[in-house]
Amino acid sequence: MDKALLDLYADYLISSFSATTATGLADVLDQAISHDQITRFLAARPLTSADLWHLVKPLVRQVESAEGVLIVDDRIEEKPYTDENELITWHFDHSKDRVVKGINFLTTLYCVGAVSLPVAYELVTKTETVVDKKTGKPRKKSAVTKNARYRTMLRACRRNQIPCRFVLNDVWSASAENMQFVKHDLQQDFIMPIKANRKVALSLADKHCGVYVAVEALALEADTLQEVYLDEVDFPLLLTKHVFTNEDGGTGVLYLVTSDVTLTAEQIVTFYHTRWKVEQYHKSLKQNASLAKSPTRTVVTQSNHFFAAVCAFIKLESLKRKTSLNHFALKSKIYLAALHTAFGELQRLAPTELVHPATA
Prior knowledge:
Oligomer: single chain
Strand content: 15-25%
């Protein structure tokens, strides 16, 4: 890995407000580094989550705390106009309830106080072809499930000795297998949402007898606690019902379970709200780190551009700690400086007064 060139490329991603290309960076550097060198850097060995850890580790060690949380989430960055390959391919987007073309990636975000640092990631590649049972047509499939990728990232965090109090994730990762994995293999507690139709037993005796009831059928008041048991989970969970107001003014209900049976309902909700930081990460990665602005065409160059965008996010997070400015304020400051430079250059090149055609 060419660390010096990676630094320059990440700075370019932060500084750019349009498409990011090898030629564009070479021009910014006044050809001190040629576009061929930059292209070779992007096309070199695919950078991985392990490489990311080596870069972010010093920052993690500065902020790490036993009260931190590890947030696991996945996102699809749409690339509708890019040629399809095993990385840029079709995925079902639960947030849009439709299939979209783009990069599907999973991230483990380590959050301590105001600091959020990506410490592991997985890019979903679809390398296998199967026949869709519904349509009878061939479709691409990943050889590794998202839940397996979820566990791979968290195992890496365990090996890297990242201290935390909870693992947080969305409802799509709240499987019994993942709960067992976090509690037993990682020896960590978790807070996860579960679907309203998920079936739970209200006592250990009911569990042994196979007596289960849907969560939505429980007479559970908002912000109260109920001890429950899930099938294939060998420890009790605390369940709470959180009622909230949506942006459109409607009411939503969130059922949360935790393996930490010492928590209050308020603590469960408060800790889980930390998961919002991963949405901020995704937004900044796209808008401030130029994730979607690269015209790269191969799997290697696309994955290395993704890696560099994550590094750009880490740089912005480091600058945030130093300046107390958030990512968007930092980007705005950069834009204003660029605008001043452009305006000054225009003043140097253009006449000082407007010349009207009638008086020219």
